[in-house]
Amino acid sequence: MPQEVNIIGGGLAGCEAALRVAAHGLKAVLWEMKPHRFSPAHRLSSLAELVCSNSFRADSPDKAVGLLKEELTSLGSVVMKAAAEHRVPAGRCLAVDRVLFSQKVTSVVSGNPLVKIKRAEFLGDNVPVGPLVLAGGPLASEAMVDFLKARSPKAHLFFYDALAPIVTLESLDLSRLYRADRYGEGEGDYLNCPLTKQEYEAFYETLTEADRVEPRSFEENRCFEGCLPIEIMAARGPKTLTFGPMKPVGLNDPKTGLRPFAVVQLRRENKAGTLWNLVGFQTRLTRPAQDKVFRLIPGLEKAEFSRYGAIHRNTFLEAPEVLDEFQRLKSDSSVFIAGQLSGVEGYVESTAQGLWAGENAARQAKGWPLVRPPRQTALGSLLSHLDNFGGRKDFAPSNINFGLFPPPPVDGPKKASGSWRLEQARTALGPFLKEVNYVHWS
Protein backbone atom coordinates (compact mmCIF):
# COMPACT_ATOMS: atom_id res chain seq x y z
CA MET A 1 0.00 0.00 0.00
CA PRO A 2 1.24 3.55 -0.71
CA GLN A 3 2.71 5.28 2.31
CA GLU A 4 2.13 8.84 1.10
CA VAL A 5 -0.64 10.97 -0.34
CA ASN A 6 -0.01 13.99 -2.56
CA ILE A 7 -2.16 17.08 -2.11
CA ILE A 8 -2.05 19.81 -4.76
CA GLY A 9 -2.77 23.30 -3.44
CA GLY A 10 -1.89 24.92 -0.12
CA GLY A 11 -5.16 26.72 0.56
CA LEU A 12 -7.64 26.00 3.34
CA ALA A 13 -8.77 22.69 1.84
CA GLY A 14 -5.27 21.50 0.98
CA CYS A 15 -3.89 22.23 4.43
CA GLU A 16 -6.73 20.38 6.13
CA ALA A 17 -6.36 17.43 3.74
CA ALA A 18 -2.63 17.20 4.41
CA LEU A 19 -3.09 17.18 8.18
CA ARG A 20 -5.80 14.50 7.95
CA VAL A 21 -3.39 12.31 6.00
CA ALA A 22 -0.71 12.92 8.63
CA ALA A 23 -3.16 12.06 11.41
CA HIS A 24 -3.35 8.57 9.90
CA GLY A 25 0.41 8.19 10.18
CA LEU A 26 0.99 8.60 6.45
CA LYS A 27 3.31 11.01 4.72
CA ALA A 28 1.54 13.97 3.10
CA VAL A 29 3.24 15.83 0.27
CA LEU A 30 1.63 19.26 -0.03
CA TRP A 31 2.31 20.99 -3.35
CA GLU A 32 2.17 24.79 -3.43
CA MET A 33 3.25 26.79 -6.45
CA LYS A 34 3.84 30.02 -4.49
CA PRO A 35 6.24 31.83 -4.38
CA HIS A 36 7.42 30.61 -7.80
CA ARG A 37 4.08 31.54 -9.29
CA PHE A 38 1.16 33.57 -7.97
CA SER A 39 -2.43 33.69 -9.17
CA PRO A 40 -3.80 37.16 -10.01
CA ALA A 41 -5.46 37.39 -6.57
CA HIS A 42 -2.79 35.98 -4.25
CA ARG A 43 -0.12 38.07 -2.51
CA LEU A 44 1.30 36.06 0.39
CA SER A 45 3.86 33.27 0.12
CA SER A 46 2.34 31.54 3.15
CA LEU A 47 -0.33 28.84 3.06
CA ALA A 48 -4.08 29.24 3.64
CA GLU A 49 -4.25 32.76 2.22
CA LEU A 50 -7.70 34.33 2.43
CA VAL A 51 -8.24 36.05 -0.91
CA CYS A 52 -11.74 37.50 -0.62
CA SER A 53 -13.27 38.49 2.72
CA ASN A 54 -11.59 37.94 6.08
CA SER A 55 -14.88 36.65 7.52
CA PHE A 56 -15.85 33.06 8.29
CA ARG A 57 -19.42 34.29 8.78
CA ALA A 58 -21.87 33.55 11.61
CA ASP A 59 -20.46 32.04 14.78
CA SER A 60 -23.59 30.69 16.48
CA PRO A 61 -23.97 26.87 16.26
CA ASP A 62 -27.73 27.17 15.67
CA LYS A 63 -26.87 28.72 12.28
CA ALA A 64 -25.91 26.33 9.49
CA VAL A 65 -22.39 27.73 9.04
CA GLY A 66 -21.91 27.97 12.81
CA LEU A 67 -22.86 24.32 13.16
CA LEU A 68 -20.38 23.38 10.46
CA LYS A 69 -17.67 25.28 12.36
CA GLU A 70 -18.51 23.41 15.55
CA GLU A 71 -18.21 20.10 13.72
CA LEU A 72 -14.89 21.12 12.21
CA THR A 73 -13.57 22.02 15.65
CA SER A 74 -14.57 18.59 16.97
CA LEU A 75 -12.78 17.03 13.98
CA GLY A 76 -9.53 18.83 14.87
CA SER A 77 -9.55 21.48 12.14
CA VAL A 78 -6.38 23.60 12.11
CA VAL A 79 -8.24 26.33 10.21
CA MET A 80 -10.85 26.70 12.94
CA LYS A 81 -8.17 26.72 15.65
CA ALA A 82 -6.11 29.36 13.84
CA ALA A 83 -9.21 31.47 13.18
CA ALA A 84 -10.13 31.40 16.87
CA GLU A 85 -6.61 32.48 17.84
CA HIS A 86 -6.45 35.37 15.39
CA ARG A 87 -10.01 36.64 15.31
CA VAL A 88 -10.80 40.33 15.14
CA PRO A 89 -13.95 41.97 16.52
CA ALA A 90 -16.85 41.41 14.12
CA GLY A 91 -19.99 41.16 16.23
CA ARG A 92 -21.63 37.74 15.91
CA CYS A 93 -19.34 36.75 13.02
CA LEU A 94 -15.91 35.14 13.06
CA ALA A 95 -13.47 37.39 11.22
CA VAL A 96 -9.69 37.14 11.34
CA ASP A 97 -6.48 39.04 10.75
CA ARG A 98 -5.74 37.33 7.47
CA VAL A 99 -1.94 37.69 7.63
CA LEU A 100 -1.59 36.31 11.17
CA PHE A 101 -4.11 33.58 10.37
CA SER A 102 -2.17 32.47 7.29
CA GLN A 103 1.10 32.51 9.21
CA LYS A 104 -0.40 30.34 11.97
CA VAL A 105 -1.73 27.70 9.58
CA THR A 106 1.60 27.65 7.74
CA SER A 107 3.43 27.16 11.03
CA VAL A 108 1.24 24.23 12.06
CA VAL A 109 1.45 22.51 8.67
CA SER A 110 5.19 23.01 8.21
CA GLY A 111 5.83 21.90 11.77
CA ASN A 112 4.13 18.55 11.29
CA PRO A 113 6.83 15.88 10.83
CA LEU A 114 4.69 13.88 8.40
CA VAL A 115 3.93 16.80 6.06
CA LYS A 116 6.39 17.79 3.37
CA ILE A 117 5.69 21.12 1.65
CA LYS A 118 6.80 20.95 -1.97
CA ARG A 119 7.12 24.42 -3.50
CA ALA A 120 6.43 23.46 -7.09
CA GLU A 121 3.63 23.79 -9.62
CA PHE A 122 1.57 20.77 -10.58
CA LEU A 123 1.85 20.55 -14.36
CA GLY A 124 -0.18 17.44 -15.02
CA ASP A 125 2.73 15.50 -16.49
CA ASN A 126 4.37 15.00 -13.10
CA VAL A 127 1.50 13.02 -11.54
CA PRO A 128 2.65 11.11 -8.46
CA VAL A 129 1.63 7.52 -7.75
CA GLY A 130 -1.10 6.78 -5.21
CA PRO A 131 -4.08 8.81 -3.96
CA LEU A 132 -4.03 12.37 -5.25
CA VAL A 133 -6.02 15.24 -3.73
CA LEU A 134 -6.59 18.22 -6.01
CA ALA A 135 -7.27 21.37 -3.99
CA GLY A 136 -6.50 24.04 -6.55
CA GLY A 137 -9.15 26.41 -5.26
CA PRO A 138 -11.26 28.85 -7.28
CA LEU A 139 -8.16 30.03 -9.12
CA ALA A 140 -6.94 26.58 -10.15
CA SER A 141 -4.05 26.77 -12.59
CA GLU A 142 -4.50 26.10 -16.28
CA ALA A 143 -2.41 22.97 -15.92
CA MET A 144 -4.75 21.57 -13.28
CA VAL A 145 -7.81 22.48 -15.32
CA ASP A 146 -6.32 20.77 -18.37
CA PHE A 147 -5.54 17.71 -16.24
CA LEU A 148 -9.18 17.54 -15.16
CA LYS A 149 -10.61 18.21 -18.60
CA ALA A 150 -8.57 15.33 -20.00
CA ARG A 151 -10.30 13.01 -17.52
CA SER A 152 -13.84 14.41 -17.37
CA PRO A 153 -15.74 16.16 -20.17
CA LYS A 154 -17.64 18.43 -17.75
CA ALA A 155 -14.74 19.25 -15.48
CA HIS A 156 -14.28 22.91 -16.36
CA LEU A 157 -17.03 25.26 -15.28
CA PHE A 158 -16.68 28.68 -13.75
CA PHE A 159 -18.32 31.91 -12.69
CA TYR A 160 -16.86 35.06 -11.17
CA ASP A 161 -16.42 36.14 -7.57
CA ALA A 162 -15.75 39.76 -6.69
CA LEU A 163 -13.56 41.17 -3.91
CA ALA A 164 -14.63 44.04 -1.66
CA PRO A 165 -12.40 47.10 -1.19
CA ILE A 166 -10.34 47.67 1.95
CA VAL A 167 -9.63 51.18 3.28
CA THR A 168 -7.22 52.55 5.88
CA LEU A 169 -8.62 53.75 9.21
CA GLU A 170 -6.51 56.91 9.25
CA SER A 171 -8.06 58.06 5.98
CA LEU A 172 -11.63 57.95 7.36
CA ASP A 173 -13.52 60.90 8.78
CA LEU A 174 -14.58 59.21 12.02
CA SER A 175 -16.65 62.22 13.06
CA ARG A 176 -19.19 61.17 10.41
CA LEU A 177 -19.26 57.50 11.44
CA TYR A 178 -20.53 55.64 14.49
CA ARG A 179 -19.78 52.27 16.05
CA ALA A 180 -22.64 49.79 16.34
CA ASP A 181 -23.66 46.21 15.70
CA ARG A 182 -27.09 45.60 14.25
CA TYR A 183 -29.83 45.77 16.92
CA GLY A 184 -27.13 46.54 19.49
CA GLU A 185 -26.20 42.85 19.72
CA GLY A 186 -22.47 43.14 20.19
CA GLU A 187 -19.69 45.41 21.37
CA GLY A 188 -19.95 47.95 18.56
CA ASP A 189 -17.43 46.20 16.33
CA TYR A 190 -18.61 47.76 13.05
CA LEU A 191 -18.07 51.30 11.79
CA ASN A 192 -21.28 52.60 10.23
CA CYS A 193 -21.61 55.26 7.56
CA PRO A 194 -25.14 56.71 7.61
CA LEU A 195 -26.65 58.12 4.41
CA THR A 196 -29.62 60.43 4.02
CA LYS A 197 -32.10 59.84 1.21
CA GLN A 198 -30.40 62.52 -0.88
CA GLU A 199 -26.92 61.10 -0.24
CA TYR A 200 -28.10 57.60 -1.12
CA GLU A 201 -29.72 58.74 -4.36
CA ALA A 202 -26.54 60.53 -5.43
CA PHE A 203 -24.48 57.44 -4.56
CA TYR A 204 -26.89 55.14 -6.39
CA GLU A 205 -26.96 57.25 -9.53
CA THR A 206 -23.16 57.47 -9.70
CA LEU A 207 -22.79 53.75 -9.00
CA THR A 208 -25.15 52.65 -11.74
CA GLU A 209 -23.41 54.86 -14.30
CA ALA A 210 -19.85 53.93 -13.29
CA ASP A 211 -17.40 52.14 -15.58
CA ARG A 212 -16.93 48.41 -15.05
CA VAL A 213 -14.28 45.86 -15.87
CA GLU A 214 -16.22 43.68 -18.31
CA PRO A 215 -15.47 40.00 -18.98
CA ARG A 216 -13.51 39.38 -22.14
CA SER A 217 -15.21 37.98 -25.24
CA PHE A 218 -14.28 34.38 -24.42
CA GLU A 219 -15.32 34.58 -20.76
CA GLU A 220 -18.76 33.57 -19.53
CA ASN A 221 -20.44 36.28 -17.45
CA ARG A 222 -21.72 34.31 -14.44
CA CYS A 223 -21.79 35.48 -10.82
CA PHE A 224 -22.44 33.62 -7.57
CA GLU A 225 -25.76 34.85 -6.20
CA GLY A 226 -24.37 35.00 -2.66
CA CYS A 227 -21.49 37.28 -3.67
CA LEU A 228 -22.93 39.60 -6.31
CA PRO A 229 -21.01 42.74 -7.23
CA ILE A 230 -22.56 45.83 -5.69
CA GLU A 231 -23.29 47.31 -9.12
CA ILE A 232 -25.12 44.16 -10.24
CA MET A 233 -27.35 44.35 -7.16
CA ALA A 234 -27.98 48.04 -7.79
CA ALA A 235 -29.11 47.32 -11.35
CA ARG A 236 -32.02 45.32 -9.95
CA GLY A 237 -33.70 48.45 -8.67
CA PRO A 238 -33.16 51.65 -6.64
CA LYS A 239 -34.15 50.07 -3.31
CA THR A 240 -32.32 46.75 -3.69
CA LEU A 241 -29.21 47.91 -1.80
CA THR A 242 -31.28 49.20 1.12
CA PHE A 243 -32.56 45.66 1.60
CA GLY A 244 -29.08 44.21 1.13
CA PRO A 245 -25.61 45.47 2.10
CA MET A 246 -26.90 48.99 2.85
CA LYS A 247 -29.80 47.83 5.02
CA PRO A 248 -30.28 50.38 7.86
CA VAL A 249 -32.59 48.31 10.08
CA GLY A 250 -31.26 47.92 13.62
CA LEU A 251 -28.54 50.54 13.13
CA ASN A 252 -29.99 53.75 14.57
CA ASP A 253 -27.61 56.71 14.48
CA PRO A 254 -26.78 57.67 18.10
CA LYS A 255 -26.44 61.33 17.07
CA THR A 256 -30.07 61.53 16.00
CA GLY A 257 -31.62 58.47 17.61
CA LEU A 258 -33.16 57.75 14.21
CA ARG A 259 -32.65 55.11 11.57
CA PRO A 260 -30.73 56.44 8.54
CA PHE A 261 -32.09 55.96 5.04
CA ALA A 262 -29.16 53.65 4.28
CA VAL A 263 -25.96 52.49 5.99
CA VAL A 264 -22.60 51.24 4.77
CA GLN A 265 -20.84 49.02 7.29
CA LEU A 266 -17.08 48.66 7.67
CA ARG A 267 -15.61 45.55 9.30
CA ARG A 268 -12.18 45.37 10.88
CA GLU A 269 -9.70 43.68 8.53
CA ASN A 270 -6.77 43.18 10.93
CA LYS A 271 -6.17 42.97 14.67
CA ALA A 272 -4.47 46.35 14.75
CA GLY A 273 -7.64 47.92 13.38
CA THR A 274 -5.74 49.90 10.75
CA LEU A 275 -7.60 48.35 7.82
CA TRP A 276 -11.37 48.10 7.30
CA ASN A 277 -13.42 46.16 4.75
CA LEU A 278 -16.52 47.58 3.04
CA VAL A 279 -18.98 44.83 3.95
CA GLY A 280 -20.90 43.49 0.96
CA PHE A 281 -19.24 45.92 -1.46
CA GLN A 282 -17.56 43.37 -3.70
CA THR A 283 -17.26 44.97 -7.11
CA ARG A 284 -15.99 44.85 -10.65
CA LEU A 285 -15.87 48.63 -11.06
CA THR A 286 -12.69 50.07 -12.54
CA ARG A 287 -10.28 51.62 -10.04
CA PRO A 288 -11.03 55.22 -11.09
CA ALA A 289 -14.73 54.43 -10.75
CA GLN A 290 -14.20 53.03 -7.25
CA ASP A 291 -12.38 56.21 -6.24
CA LYS A 292 -15.30 58.27 -7.47
CA VAL A 293 -18.20 56.13 -6.23
CA PHE A 294 -17.05 54.97 -2.81
CA ARG A 295 -15.79 58.40 -1.77
CA LEU A 296 -19.40 59.55 -1.97
CA ILE A 297 -20.05 57.51 1.17
CA PRO A 298 -20.08 59.80 4.23
CA GLY A 299 -16.77 59.52 6.07
CA LEU A 300 -14.99 58.02 3.06
CA GLU A 301 -14.47 61.27 1.15
CA LYS A 302 -10.68 60.94 1.46
CA ALA A 303 -10.50 57.17 1.74
CA GLU A 304 -7.22 55.49 0.89
CA PHE A 305 -7.62 52.01 -0.57
CA SER A 306 -5.17 49.36 0.59
CA ARG A 307 -7.00 47.03 -1.79
CA TYR A 308 -9.43 47.90 -4.53
CA GLY A 309 -12.33 45.66 -5.32
CA ALA A 310 -11.67 43.21 -8.14
CA ILE A 311 -13.07 40.17 -9.90
CA HIS A 312 -11.63 36.71 -10.15
CA ARG A 313 -12.57 33.46 -11.78
CA ASN A 314 -14.08 30.73 -9.62
CA THR A 315 -13.35 27.31 -11.10
CA PHE A 316 -15.45 24.34 -10.01
CA LEU A 317 -16.59 20.94 -11.23
CA GLU A 318 -20.08 19.81 -12.11
CA ALA A 319 -19.86 17.50 -9.13
CA PRO A 320 -22.98 15.33 -9.67
CA GLU A 321 -21.72 14.45 -13.14
CA VAL A 322 -18.03 13.88 -12.48
CA LEU A 323 -17.60 12.94 -8.79
CA ASP A 324 -18.62 9.82 -6.89
CA GLU A 325 -20.05 9.81 -3.36
CA PHE A 326 -16.56 10.13 -1.86
CA GLN A 327 -15.58 13.16 -4.01
CA ARG A 328 -13.36 11.11 -6.33
CA LEU A 329 -13.41 11.46 -10.09
CA LYS A 330 -15.73 8.84 -11.51
CA SER A 331 -13.22 8.41 -14.31
CA ASP A 332 -10.25 7.94 -11.94
CA SER A 333 -10.88 6.79 -8.37
CA SER A 334 -7.33 7.69 -7.32
CA VAL A 335 -8.10 11.41 -7.71
CA PHE A 336 -9.98 13.20 -4.91
CA ILE A 337 -11.29 16.74 -5.37
CA ALA A 338 -11.12 19.10 -2.40
CA GLY A 339 -12.41 22.55 -1.50
CA GLN A 340 -14.14 25.00 -3.79
CA LEU A 341 -12.99 23.08 -6.83
CA SER A 342 -15.49 20.37 -5.80
CA GLY A 343 -18.48 22.72 -5.99
CA VAL A 344 -18.81 24.09 -2.46
CA GLU A 345 -18.72 27.82 -1.81
CA GLY A 346 -17.09 29.66 1.09
CA TYR A 347 -14.12 29.41 3.43
CA VAL A 348 -15.77 27.19 6.02
CA GLU A 349 -17.28 24.90 3.39
CA SER A 350 -13.96 24.55 1.55
CA THR A 351 -12.21 23.76 4.82
CA ALA A 352 -14.78 21.09 5.69
CA GLN A 353 -14.84 19.43 2.29
CA GLY A 354 -11.03 19.46 2.11
CA LEU A 355 -10.72 17.90 5.54
CA TRP A 356 -13.02 15.04 4.57
CA ALA A 357 -11.36 14.53 1.18
CA GLY A 358 -8.08 14.13 3.06
CA GLU A 359 -9.73 11.71 5.47
CA ASN A 360 -10.92 9.45 2.67
CA ALA A 361 -7.69 9.75 0.69
CA ALA A 362 -5.83 8.49 3.76
CA ARG A 363 -8.34 5.68 4.22
CA GLN A 364 -7.92 4.65 0.61
CA ALA A 365 -4.14 4.63 0.99
CA LYS A 366 -4.47 2.40 4.08
CA GLY A 367 -7.00 0.07 2.49
CA TRP A 368 -9.77 1.17 4.87
CA PRO A 369 -13.42 1.58 3.79
CA LEU A 370 -14.30 5.12 2.68
CA VAL A 371 -17.01 6.85 4.70
CA ARG A 372 -19.55 9.67 4.60
CA PRO A 373 -20.74 11.65 7.65
CA PRO A 374 -24.42 11.28 8.62
CA ARG A 375 -26.88 13.45 6.73
CA GLN A 376 -28.06 14.98 10.01
CA THR A 377 -24.68 16.71 10.32
CA ALA A 378 -23.73 19.93 8.57
CA LEU A 379 -20.77 18.20 6.92
CA GLY A 380 -22.90 15.32 5.70
CA SER A 381 -25.50 17.70 4.31
CA LEU A 382 -22.83 19.81 2.59
CA LEU A 383 -21.42 16.73 0.87
CA SER A 384 -24.93 15.74 -0.20
CA HIS A 385 -25.06 18.94 -2.24
CA LEU A 386 -22.27 17.53 -4.39
CA ASP A 387 -24.51 14.55 -5.13
CA ASN A 388 -27.20 17.02 -6.26
CA PHE A 389 -29.44 15.88 -3.42
CA GLY A 390 -31.54 18.98 -3.99
CA GLY A 391 -32.29 17.93 -7.55
CA ARG A 392 -31.24 21.16 -9.30
CA LYS A 393 -31.15 20.97 -13.07
CA ASP A 394 -28.15 23.30 -13.26
CA PHE A 395 -25.57 22.52 -10.60
CA ALA A 396 -24.05 25.58 -8.92
CA PRO A 397 -21.73 26.01 -5.91
CA SER A 398 -23.49 26.50 -2.59
CA ASN A 399 -22.78 27.70 0.91
CA ILE A 400 -23.97 25.47 3.74
CA ASN A 401 -27.61 26.21 4.61
CA PHE A 402 -30.42 24.36 6.32
CA GLY A 403 -32.06 23.80 2.94
CA LEU A 404 -29.36 21.17 2.30
CA PHE A 405 -30.30 19.24 5.44
CA PRO A 406 -32.80 16.35 5.36
CA PRO A 407 -36.42 17.31 6.17
CA PRO A 408 -37.69 16.52 9.68
CA PRO A 409 -39.20 13.05 10.14
CA VAL A 410 -42.98 12.65 10.16
CA ASP A 411 -43.01 12.61 13.96
CA GLY A 412 -40.62 15.56 14.16
CA PRO A 413 -41.27 19.32 14.18
CA LYS A 414 -43.19 20.73 11.23
CA LYS A 415 -40.49 23.33 10.74
CA ALA A 416 -37.01 22.44 11.98
CA SER A 417 -35.39 25.21 14.04
CA GLY A 418 -31.67 25.81 14.15
CA SER A 419 -31.53 24.50 17.71
CA TRP A 420 -33.31 21.28 16.65
CA ARG A 421 -30.84 20.83 13.79
CA LEU A 422 -27.98 21.40 16.22
CA GLU A 423 -29.25 18.71 18.58
CA GLN A 424 -29.74 16.22 15.76
CA ALA A 425 -26.25 16.83 14.38
CA ARG A 426 -24.54 16.56 17.76
CA THR A 427 -26.38 13.31 18.50
CA ALA A 428 -25.33 11.77 15.18
CA LEU A 429 -21.69 12.88 14.90
CA GLY A 430 -20.17 11.40 18.06
CA PRO A 431 -21.28 7.77 17.51
CA PHE A 432 -20.33 7.99 13.84
CA LEU A 433 -16.75 9.05 14.62
CA LYS A 434 -16.38 6.15 17.04
CA GLU A 435 -17.86 3.71 14.55
CA VAL A 436 -15.45 4.67 11.75
CA ASN A 437 -12.44 4.95 14.10
CA TYR A 438 -11.80 8.62 13.37
CA VAL A 439 -8.17 9.37 14.22
CA HIS A 440 -7.25 12.71 15.82
CA TRP A 441 -3.71 14.03 15.49
CA SER A 442 -1.93 14.12 18.84
Brief description of this entry?
By secondary structure, the protein is of the alpha+beta class. The protein has helices at 12-23, 64-74, 78-85, 98-110, 142-149, 197-209, 230-234, 287-294, 319-322, 347-366, 378-385, 418-435; strands at 4-8, 27-31, 55-58, 87-88, 93-96, 115-118, 132-134, 157-163, 166-168, 178-179, 191-195, 262-268, 275-278, 305-307, 310-316, 328-329, 332-337.
Structure description:
The chain has helices at 12-23, 64-74, 78-85, 98-110, 142-149, 197-209, 230-234, 287-294, 319-322, 347-366, 378-385, 418-435, and strands at residues 4-8, 27-31, 55-58, 87-88, 93-96, 115-118, 132-134, 157-163, 166-168, 178-179, 191-195, 262-268, 275-278, 305-307, 310-316, 328-329, 332-337. The protein has 442 residues and is α+β, with helices and mostly antiparallel strands. It has a six-stranded mixed sheet, with helices on one face. The chain has a six-stranded antiparallel sheet with strand order 10-11-12-13-9-14. It has two domains: 4-156 and 317-435, FAD/NAD(P)-binding domain (3-Layer(bba) Sandwich); 162-311, Elongation Factor Tu (Ef-tu), domain 3. 49% of the residues are buried. The protein is built from twelve helices and 17 strands. Helix 3 (78-85) crosses helix 4 (98-110). The model has no long low-confidence stretch (mean pLDDT 89). It is globular, with a radius of gyration of 22 Å.
